[in-house]
Amino acid sequence: MTKLTPSDKALVPFVSVDHMMKLIHHVGIEKMLTELADYIEADFKRWQLFDKTPRIASHSEEGVIELMPTSDGEVYGFKYVNGHPKNTAEGLQTVTAFGLLADVGSGYPVLLSEMTMLTAMRTAATSALVARLLAPEDAKTMAMIGNGAQSEFQSLAMKAVCGIEEVRLYDTDPAATQKCVENLADQGLRVVPCKTAEDAILGAQIITTCTADKQYATILTDNMVGAGVHINAIGGDCPGKTELARAILHRSDIFVEFPEQTRIEGEIQQLADDHSVTEIWRVLTGTAPGRTSDKQITLFDSVGFAIEDFSALRYVRDKIKDTDLFHPLDLLADPDDPRDLFGMLQRAN
Fold first, then answer.
1. pLDDT (0 to 100) of residue 2
2. Share of the chain above pLDDT 90, in %
3. Pick from 181, 174, 180: which is nearest to 150 by CA?
4. DSSP secondary-structure letter at 256?
5. Is the Cβ–Cβ distance between 58 and 66 less than 8 Å?
6. Could you read off the pLDDT of 76-130 as tens digits, one per residue?
7. Which is nearest to 29 in space by CA: 193, 141, 158, 148?
8. Annotated catalytic residue: which of 38, 138, 171, 237?
């Protein structure tokens, strides 16, 4: 494959699914998760530079299609993503995505990439970054409630970034749990399949919920959650979709990415609009406290935010330099005279 040069202004690097998988293996899964966490942390620490808006959503009975845009003033990025819980039963992915970076100065795209695989990686990296801030010191065990497409990524990110040694698995579908057990074999984790959610959370300092039912659900009831744990609620969020009993929220210190979005789609849609939450960027910059006691229940009500995708795309753009892990995509018309687009068309006949 020909590598792009500065003269190839009209060619846009495109990272396909195949290239993304090769990139992950080239870097190493756990190393890439750790490096993605570092990129996300760096961008969250310059939070105030970014354009911020709740994602633009088109909801239907079947699911949701969303655009997630942001810019730091020099680079613009967006992700297209869907969330369709019914897809699994039809042999399709619940979530698919692609994303783009563009130069703000010219408006020209500088990267187009698949983001189904990359979203799983950045979601896991974000979870682990926040758990490193909020989980009990020396946490070694995580309960993974919901063993679908995200579960292995979450488990490995918690291992790589937080030092988790054991993951306890539960899913309403035993086949999903078995899939996860097999995928995590020989990954350096003790993997414990469990028959109930109550069994899965025994001894866990971190509890991750990642389910996709499009309804108000109670994956964790109030009596299941004891003092001192960190809850990582990352399930397929949308209006009318929750995973935690409301009483748990009232007992927890709640941390979010962007409140204006989380109040629409996250667990806190169950609470009053003025209920206090802490933006995670403030903890990262030292302007707000994180965990302050051994008894505290911390809750990361994560719905995903555009800056995380921006960070992930920025990481990929950096990593593919001087590699052949992309296609030069002829995406932009580039006439010799920028005023003569029609002439370019005519000469192509």
1. 35
2. 83
3. 180
4. E
5. yes
6. 999 999 988 889 889 998 889 999 999 999 999 999 999 999 999 999 999 999 9
7. 158
8. 237
Q: Which residue has the tokens 């690097």?
A: 13
- Look at the block and give the residue holding tokens 């292995």: 152
The answer to whether residue 337 is catalytic is: no
Phi, psi of 217 (to 5 degrees): -125, 160
Residue 4 token pair: 């792009």
N-terminal to C-terminal alpha carbon distance within the chain: 28
Query: Token digits for 263?
Result: 């109040």
Provide the mean pLDDT of the chain: 93
In angstroms, the CA 234 to CA 119 distance is 13
Distances (CA, A) of 9 to 105, 120, 141, 268: 14, 30, 49, 45
The pLDDT score that the predictor gives to residue 7 is 43
**What is the DSSP track for 192-223?**
EE-SSHHHHTTT-SEEEE----SSEEEEE-GG
- Amino acid letter, 276: S
Is the pLDDT assigned to residue 40 strictly greater than 50? yes
Distance CA 339, CA 54 (A): 37
Identify the three-state secondary structure at position 80. Answer: strand
